[in-house]
Write a sequence for this structure.
């Protein structure tokens, strides 16, 4: 080749930031699409559900009106059947960021009250679930005697149990926090117990035989084999448990006539027809639930990395 | 035919020099439909320092016999003495190290911690634990891999970790149940040779279950040929090939002669039917 080299156009690979943004977009666009469709449906639903009230009012004014006036009215009502998303968002923003935390109108305050009961109930539920599972795995009598009751306990609707727990614990002088935590515990020990029974039984026969060749005690086998082997199962259960624990805490706030907590906020909203307040409390509960499950997931990842899991 | 040295025939003469003495041993598993005779009238004596291998087709009871030695199964009748005491007492005294068909490492423990596991269980203090585990890892040629987790190792390395773990309590008796069965032939050859060097250096008693004739002949001083339905000992063959054996001994005529005898014994036990 004698020809001088023709300069080729340089194709520079995209920089790290551009690549990361592209990757983010790859993950984000399906989510954003679903959100957009959901919002559109919600706005349409708000018009449809609020239309009777709005059209009545517009008729009363007497001016001719069409769909734009109907939509405008439907998205700006004070007590709509279904509030528009932006109304909920604005209310949420105002009661989270523009309200003193000590104020009874602060959603942060209410969320904090519910969170305390949720975490206490979750801790109690984990302890109860793990204890029951250890008993069931180590004792054939408990296995036969306990498991049916554990399963039966979950067939009773929590709404039927909650008022009784509140009344009984209240008459014994316990604060509402304890009643709420107990209701949470009642809901969330179940997935923990079921998951842990499976997890504690997960070591294969060779791994168990190995302990036998060392003449290891039951406690040693539990600590050094069964519990570590059960941890992945425990975390899977814990994610379900913390979400149900939140539900339990909110349900526990309904019959207590509680002054504070997301459940109390829902209840007072429904007393006074404050639908926007109800929806923003609901969103707060959903956010709290997502955050709690994510927190459990984070602890899980850290633990699994510490235990030599594939990064 | 059961070959039995005369001096061990009477139960009273439990020679503490013998690592394993089985007399009239039978084991019947009660399954859902029919009872299965896994072992039928097994008589066997293994002296200290011997390398004995059990060979036979699947279902001949070789693993079951090993598990009876380890007190992982209880015989239906007959007696089993390990180091002059009952198999159960021997297990409680942690008289043996057991290597399973699979490495059975605990995946949440790194290599060093897997080897330290038995030492933790018997309550060896932490610094001594580490030192002893490192010594065993060096013995199986795995120094430098302490911090690796099982999934980061090849199958052969995992099995070496499990051998180091079995050696950690420094037992005089090593029970190995088809430890290299799942490995490729090249890795298996290599580990066989390493195992022989280890045995020559430590003088331990090794009982080795295999279904490979060449593995049995290469490793063992005595080859216990077993046969299925019911599981029983067909013949016990002395292996005269002198040590230290190198891999190329397998090309020698004497190796072929011993292998031939094993094959004949298997045929006599209808193992090829």
């Amino acid at each position: 080749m004698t020809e001088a080299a023709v300069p080729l156009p340089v194709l520079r690979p995209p920089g790290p930031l551009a690549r990361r943004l592209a990757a983010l977009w790859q993950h984000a666009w399906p989510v954003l699409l679903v959100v957009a469709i959901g919002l559109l449906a919600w706005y349409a639903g708000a018009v449809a559900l609020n239309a009777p009230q709005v059209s009545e009012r517009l008729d009363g004014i007497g001016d001719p009106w069409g769909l734009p006036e109907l939509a405008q009215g439907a998205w700006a009502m004070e007590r709509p059947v279904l509030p528009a998303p932006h109304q909920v968002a604005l209310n949420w923003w105002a009661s989270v960021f523009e309200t003193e935390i000590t104020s009874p109108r602060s959603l942060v305050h209410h969320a904090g009250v519910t969170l305390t009961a949720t975490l206490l109930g979750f801790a109690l539920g984990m302890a109860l679930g793990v204890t029951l599972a250890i008993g069931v795995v180590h004792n054939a009598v408990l296995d036969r005697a306990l498991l049916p009751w554990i399963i039966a306990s979950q067939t009773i609707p929590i709404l039927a149990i909650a008022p009784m727990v509140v009344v009984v614990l209240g008459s014994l002088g316990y604060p509402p926090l304890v009643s709420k935590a107990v209701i949470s515990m009642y809901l969330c020990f179940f997935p923990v117990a079921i998951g842990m029974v499976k997890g504690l039984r997960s070591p294969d026969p060779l791994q168990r035989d190995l302990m036998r060749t060392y003449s290891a005690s039951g406690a040693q086998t539990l600590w050094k084999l069964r519990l570590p082997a059960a941890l992945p199962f425990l975390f899977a259960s814990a994610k379900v448990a913390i979400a149900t624990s939140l539900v339990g805490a909110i349900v526990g706030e309904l019959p207590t006539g509680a002054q504070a907590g997301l459940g109390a906020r829902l209840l007072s909203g429904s007393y006074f027809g404050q639908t926007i307040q109800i929806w923003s409390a609901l969103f707060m509960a959903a956010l709290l639930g997502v955050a709690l499950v994510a927190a459990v997931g984070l602890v899980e990842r850290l633990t699994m990395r510490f235990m030599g899991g594939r990064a | 035919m059961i070959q039995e040295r005369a001096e061990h025939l009477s139960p009273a003469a439990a020679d503490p020099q013998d690592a394993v003495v089985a007399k009239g041993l039978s084991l019947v598993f009660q399954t859902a439909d029919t009872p299965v005779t896994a072992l039928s009238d097994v008589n066997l004596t293994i002296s200290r320092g011997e390398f004995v291998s059990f060979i036979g087709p699947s279902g001949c009871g070789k693993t079951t016999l090993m598990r009876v030695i380890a007190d992982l199964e209880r015989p239906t009748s007959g007696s089993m003495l390990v180091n002059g005491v009952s198999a159960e007492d021997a297990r409680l005294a942690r008289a043996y190290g057991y290597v399973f068909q699979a490495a059975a490492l605990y995946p949440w423990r790194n290599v060093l911690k897997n080897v330290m596991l038995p030492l933790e269980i018997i309550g060896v203090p932490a610094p001594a634990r580490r030192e002893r585990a490192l010594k065993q890892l060096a013995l199986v040629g795995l120094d430098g891999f302490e911090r690796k987790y099982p999934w980061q190792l090849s199958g052969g390395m995992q099995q070496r970790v499990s051998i180091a773990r079995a050696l950690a309590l420094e037992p005089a008796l090593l029970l190995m149940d088809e430890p290299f069965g799942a490995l490729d032939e090249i890795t298996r050859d290599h580990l066989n040779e390493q195992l022989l060097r280890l045995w020559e250096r430590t003088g331990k008693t090794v009982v080795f279950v295999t279904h490979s004739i060449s593995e049995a002949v290469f490793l063992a001083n005595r080859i216990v040929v077993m046969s299925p339905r019911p599981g029983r000992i067909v013949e016990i063959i002395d292996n005269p090939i002198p040590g230290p054996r190198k891999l190329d001994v397998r090309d020698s005529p004497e190796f072929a002669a011993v292998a031939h005898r094993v094959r004949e014994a298997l045929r006599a036990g209808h193992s090829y039917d």
About this structure: The interface with chain B takes residues 204, 206-207, 209-216, 220, 224-225, 228-229, 231, 307-310 of chain A (CB under 8 Å). Chain A is about 75% helix and 0% strand.
